[in-house]
Specification:
single chain, 101 residues, alpha+beta, SH3 type barrels, 5 strands, 24% helix
């Protein structure tokens, strides 16, 4: 779940406050019975599909009763600032390279 969550982060989980929505992070039981935190990418009458933020492929569609709760992810304002700085710096370097070449 990097960058939203890092190893060792603590999250609060609201147990069954309501049905999960696309974009939320949920605690769920996967097909092997392991508990995982993944982001919801699809909600349908058949269940919920999730994806870990750092993963390339989605999890299989799971019945909604496998969702144990909705996680409240801690905010990381520093990460947003660092990402913005990196994008600005990269754009600056591109402009300098175009001007010199």
């Amino acid at each position: 779940m990097v960058p939203a969550l890092a190893d060792g982060d603590e999250v609060d989980v609201e147990v069954f406050p309501r049905a999960p929505r696309v974009g939320e992070v949920v605690l769920l039981l996967d097909l092997s019975g392991a508990t995982i935190l993944h982001r919801v990418i699809q909600v349908s009458p058949l269940g919920v599909r999730t994806l870990g933020d750092a993963l390339a492929s989605a999890d299989p569609l799971l019945p909604a009763d496998r969702v144990l709760g909705i996680a409240r992810v801690p905010s990381r304002p520093f990460l947003a600032y660092a990402r913005r700085w990196a994008l600005d710096f990269r754009a600056h370097l591109r402009r300098r390279l175009r001007a010199s070449g």
